Amino acid sequence: MAATFTKDDELAVNTIRALAVDTVSKANSGHPGAPMGMAPVAHVLWSKFLNANPKNSKWINRDRFVLSNGHACALQYVMLHLLGYKLSIEDLKQFRQLGSVTPGHPEVHITDGIEVTTGPLGQGFANAVGLAIAQAHLGATFNKEDFPLIDNFTYMFTGDGCLQEGVASEAASLAGHLQLGNLIAVYDDNHITIDGNTNVSFTEDVEKRFESYGWEHIHVENGDSDLAAIAAAIAQAKKSTTKPTIIRLTTTIGFGSKLQGTHGVHGAPLKKDDVVALKEKFGLDPNAFFSVPQTSYDIYNKIAEKGAEANAKWDALFASYQQKYPAEGAEFARRVAGELPEGWEKHLPVYKLGDAAVGSRKYSEVVLEALAAPLPELVGGSADLTGSNFTRWTKAIDFQPPQTGLGDYTGRYIRYGVREHAMGAIMNGLHAYGAITPFGGTFLNFVSYAAGAVRLSALSHHQVIWVATHDSIGLGEDGPTHQPVETVAWLRALPNCAVWRPADGNETSAAYLVALKSKHTPSVLALSRQNLPQLENSTIENASKGGYVVHEDKSADITLISTGSEVAIVVEAVETLAKQNIKARVVSLPCWEVFEEQPVAYKLSVIPSGAPVMSVEAYNTFGWSKYSHEHFGLDGFGASGPYLKVYDHFEMNPAGVASRAAKVVKFYADRGVPVVSPLISALNNVRE
Q1: Does domain 7-310 have CATH number 3.40.50.1970?
Q2: Helices (DSSP H) in 461-615: which residue ranges?
Q3: What are the pLDDT digits (tens) for 471-506?
Q4: CATH architecture of 546-671
Q5: Burial of 136 from C-beta contacts in 10 A (0-12 / 13-18 / 19+)
Q6: Residue positions annotated with a catalytic role
Q7: Is 616 helix (H, G, I), strand (E, B) or coil?
Q8: Residue 211, burial from CB neighbour count under 10 angstroms (0-12, 13-18, 19+)
Q9: How far is 286 from 18, CA to CA, in rounded Å?
Q10: What are the boundaries of each domain within the chain?
Q11: What is the pTM of this model?
């Protein structure tokens, strides 16, 4: 049955426009144009289609909504208020103010009802693809005949800016291949970006592009007022079960403003006379601000009631499901709650001195193989580097449309193709959905391609795991184009991002242990290609602290501190130094962020006062001053050649470490002043 609309619906649309204008005007900052243009589709979607319960915003089978063009967040905040989420009129008045729940762009965990943090254009588009993949996977895994536990849709608003960003193109291509019929994108085709009309830079045929990706496409010519056509388009999109759909909605940016249709209404508040004229045009009181007619509240109260009823019906369905399928029901409940199964840690590989040396990418593969069965929430893949990242376990099934014969939607291994950026943003969407812990593999150097998504992982507290192999000059022949020398420095500088560079098997197991327990922190595992021997004092428990003493000598003349493949080199250097009557202790620091969380007394026991500390790492030395007095690393790019020769070229070998350590010992001895730990700090309030 076709959706019907009345004058009350028109009033609701105009109320949404006016509220968005007032919200931006009160803050004297923001973007009113897109909210004014997209108010009709927002009202149609929320009033006729969106299945959600404002009183239980985390209901697992709710429809997901993503505002990829996050600068239009005044629209989303208005809709959340009208529908009855925890967002009041007073909150709208605090738009973009310090400490408010209505920040400058939508941020998950800050505003009730926000699914993902958006703003950097294109990220939300790829997040929505991740949400759609999660729904398809969990539905295929847990649904039974007559028990459609997971059958929600993902709706996403997007704009010209998002569609120009490469991450959206990557994600759209993959979504078409995966035939995600549960994904519906509404493209706000208003022809305006910050620079002006899109004819200056963006003249492609978007519909043809998405058709080539394998999407359905629908055009609504009058997105400003044809509510029935908008509703018909969404209804048609929902019927497309084997293709995602993009609805090209032609709108007028800033509809109703004197500046409508121009970039002047894109990113600046309307002038006072314009606000007055706009409200008069829409039959609203020009002297009333943040005003909502009771008829509009009534419409949305009824929608909220329907959402609560749908939630209650689902609760009853799940209760019956648990009775008929107790094992599956218990597993589903555990995963939705974000709890790890009891005893899963016992499956982590443990190593001892003398065990065979292999690359840490291989140690990682052993972990994934061991955890695949006990942790079914682990869903991962690789950006076309499966054979190099070692990310696929033996019995893995590929996540693919069943009709392709390449796998099915129960599959937990995602073939991302050469799409690192989309992979990162899709993983954020997978985690945002719930009941999934995503991981993705690429070379460490190419995590840089996904920097925008990694940053949003950290900002949004998404638990995603990057399996980042080929972590240094140790990858050898591929040379400086592939050898990361600066990548880890910026990752370590990123707040709430745990960067692990394990030096052996136990440290690799520890990295996974902590990463899987860290529900609100992304982790990057920088893994070697070359073989790494097991270390003295290396245990999962020790490494789980982020740093520990590998080789102790209480009378040491120097502490050598290192990570990853260079720790074994440093251990060898200790023997060279001993021949010069120089005593050295060795510290492995696989994860700076986790080490920082340890008690001060422990950290000072690892990096004490009394002797100089020299760091050794085959990267740029940026950042090491917080842990060492002197730093041995690279001051430029890497080089092409067999990896041992490359290490020798940079003197990153036992002899090179020992010669520099001897120089450091002499320098500090000649100074004749006490050496204090680099951890001692007034601003950090760290004392002996």
Answers
A1: no
A2: 487-493, 505-517, 540-543, 565-578, 592-596, 600-606
A3: 999 999 999 999 999 999 999 999 999 999 999 999
A4: 3-Layer(aba) Sandwich (3.40)
A5: buried
A6: 420
A7: strand
A8: middle
A9: 10
A10: 7-310, 346-532, 546-671
A11: 0.98
